[in-house]
Design goal:
The protein is α/β, with parallel strands linked by helices. The protein has 7 helices and 6 strands, in the order ββαααβαβαβαβα.
């Protein structure tokens, strides 16, 4: 399938072939859901922690004598029954990540790319090279193109001037092709892929 290539100034140039095996895949919400959950679980820190009764700061001595007080028998104030005592079976640091077959992850990425093409939210850009890292200049070009909540995927190396100009623009993310992922692609309203990024992605997933 062919699609139009434009420049950063909005001028149309040649057409480019998109691989049917990557951009023509039927989308399935269950596959995309599995990949996004896998991706988000890997980013979850899992550093939540509650103090047990051995870690709270009260004294370990018996708080009152065993008999004759009219109170229940207690050993020390660190017991979970008391305010500010230790927590019984509270959260502990752990790894939230889980496995997902590589074929499913790759299929999810193909479906995410296909969904952007099917929804007319995919733009193929000739390149993102800039002479000067001017944020105002880049912001004006994006405004004229009408891009909203944009993700730009470049080749293996993102142009340094473009990356510097883009970092202060809200709702504009820039990734090298090896950083392309399902969550960021689905989250954006406009997916922009350069010719270098497109070539690298098609080689990566062929």
């Amino acid at each position: 399938m062919k699609t139009q290539v434009i420049s950063i100034n909005g001028r149309k140039s040649k057409s480019v072939d998109l691989s049917e095996n990557i951009f023509g895949v039927e989308c399935r919400s269950d596959i995309l859901n599995r990949v996004v959950r896998w991706q988000r679980a890997r980013k979850q820190q899992g550093t939540h922690k509650a103090k047990t009764r051995s870690e709270t700061s009260y004294s370990k001595r018996k708080i009152f004598r065993q008999k004759g007080t009219g109170n229940a028998r207690h050993g020390d104030r660190n017991a979970p029954i008391f305010s500010k005592g230790g927590v019984y079976k509270g959260p502990t640091p752990r790894d939230h990540s889980h496995g997902l077959p590589k074929k499913v992850r790759q299929l999810g990425l193909k479906m995410a790319l296909s969904s952007k093409l099917q929804n007319s939210e995919l733009v193929i850009l000739s390149n993102v090279r800039m002479k000067n890292p001017k944020t105002s200049e880049l912001n004006e070009k994006i405004r004229k193109l009408g891009w909203k909540k944009t993700l730009v995927i470049d080749g293996s190396q993102v142009d340094e001037n473009f990356a510097r100009a883009a970092r202060n623009i809200p709702d504009l993310d820039v990734l090298p092709q090896q950083g392309a992922n399902v969550y960021d692609i689905l989250k954006c309203s406009t997916l922009v892929i350069t010719l270098d990024g497109l070539k690298a992605l098609q080689e990566r997933m062929s």
